[in-house]
Structures are given as structure tokens and as C-alpha cells.
């Protein structure tokens, strides 16, 4: 059985999703443009509220005449929700940037090069992904004081 080289295994995608969760900035202003920031907040919230939900489902099975299969399926589905979110983040982190974000990426990168934060190496094979954009946004926040490199001179 031959395996498609473009096909990534789930463990690698899961690890990329966890890494992407760590590099994404926690900013409400950006959550309007990037749905992954909302997904990250949902995953973090699920980690807090899932244990009581699972305990409630187990108690539901114990005290009410619920079918065991229904309870097990409900528990498995509940546990799978954060995993699904992390897998989605893994796919999203390696997705190519849409054209409107490529322009923003290039503008931020030029400003960081002008400030001598980044080196001006030209790599034509550089793959612009959402993960690379988030890393650049973090650098921009540290060194430029804003996310998309807007000029503060006009203010």
C-alpha cells in the first residue's frame, strides 16, 4: 500500500496544532480576522469544563436508567471536541496564506527588515503559511508595537 507523500499523519498534525496554539497571540482585536484565536479560547475553556461534564455523564449513567452505550458515545464525543480543534489548528497552521494576507505579511516583513530585526534574505521557495504569519505578528508586536505594521506617525 503506497502512501501519499503529501498526506500528513495525525500525530504530526496534532503536534503542529499544539505549537500553533502556543504561537498565536491572545488578542481580541485579531480574533475578528483569525477564527483560530476563537478556537484556541474554546479549547482552553473546554479543558476546564470537560472534567465536570464527564463526571456528570458518569453520574447520569449511574443514577438514571441510561443506556451504557449512549453514555460511552457521549463521553467519547465530548472528549473528542478539543482534539478536533487541535487537529484543525494543525491543518490551519500549514495552510497557505490567502492573497490579502500575503500583502500584509510582506509589509510587516519589510518593516521588520528596515528595523534590522529580520535579515533580508530572499528565499523564493519560502512557503507562506498561517504559522509563519503568526510568528511575524508576534515579532511585529514586540519590535514595532503593533500587529500589522501601521504607521503611527500619522497619529
From TrEMBL:
GO terms for cellular component: plasma membrane. It holds the Pfam family DUF412. InterPro entries: UPF0208 (IPR007334). It is a multi-pass membrane protein. Keywords: Cell inner membrane, Cell membrane, Membrane, Transmembrane, Transmembrane helix. The chain crosses the membrane at residues 45-63, 69-91. The keyword Transmembrane applies. It is found in: Cell inner membrane. Coiled coil: none annotated. It comes from the Bacteria. Belongs to the UPF0208 family. This is UPF0208 membrane protein YfbV. It comes from Gilliamella apicola.
